[in-house]
Amino acid sequence: MIEGCLQNGTALYRHGLELIGWSSTESRIQTELFNPITRPGTEYLRLENASGETILNTFAYGVRSLIVSKNSSNVKIINVGADNLYQNTPLLKISGGEVLGVNIMRYNGISYENTNGKLKLYNRLSINNKTETTVTE
Q1: What is the DSSP string of 110-135?
Q2: What is the pLDDT of residues 74-104, one digit of tens each?
Q3: pLDDT tens track for 18-67
């Protein structure tokens, strides 16, 4: 089980803190960290050939994909989300295997990309777009 993971580099600045040697403002960290590094390249959680994994209450800001699952079976993803994804990259990227997701939230990007996997997604939400439907593939 993977539970309660949070990645959000803006949290320090939103609370008036900073790290020595890092950008001193939230706007600078966007151009120095998120846009050139984490958004184009970060797969926050990656499962390969896993079985029976549960990912619960997990969120990431400014990543390429929140979860990548490759040839993993009986994966459950519950109460997860990501904000400020990279362009049209997927929140969930599934390649083979079997994944069930409930309560999936994102801002920008796309909800999922599924290649040869069994995928069921319930209660999806995209900020500013409340038309996302249940997925059964």
Answers
A1: EEEEEES-EEEEEEEEETTBTTPPPE
A2: 999 999 999 999 888 999 999 999 999 999 9
A3: 777 776 677 778 888 889 999 999 999 999 999 999 999 999 999 999 99
Q: How far apart are CA 16 and CA 109, in angstroms?
A: 29
- In the 8-state DSSP scheme, what is residue 108? S
What does the CA dihedral 39, 85, 53, 49 come to, rounded to 10 degrees? -50
Q: Compute the C-alpha angle 118/46/71, nearest 5°.
A: 35
Q: Among 129, 131, 14, 6, which residue's Cα sits nearest to residue 66?
A: 6
Distance CA 101, CA 69 (A): 12
How far apart, in Å, are the Cα atoms of 81 and each of 16, 23, 25, 50? 24, 25, 24, 21
Q: 37: how many CB neighbours lie within 10 A of its CB?
A: 11
What per-residue confidence (pLDDT) applies to 81?
96
Query: Distance between CA atoms of 112 and 91, rounded to whole angstroms?
Result: 6
Residue 130, token pair as written in the block: 């409340």
- Which 8-state DSSP code applies to residue 20? T
- Which run of H or of E encompasses 12? helix 11-14
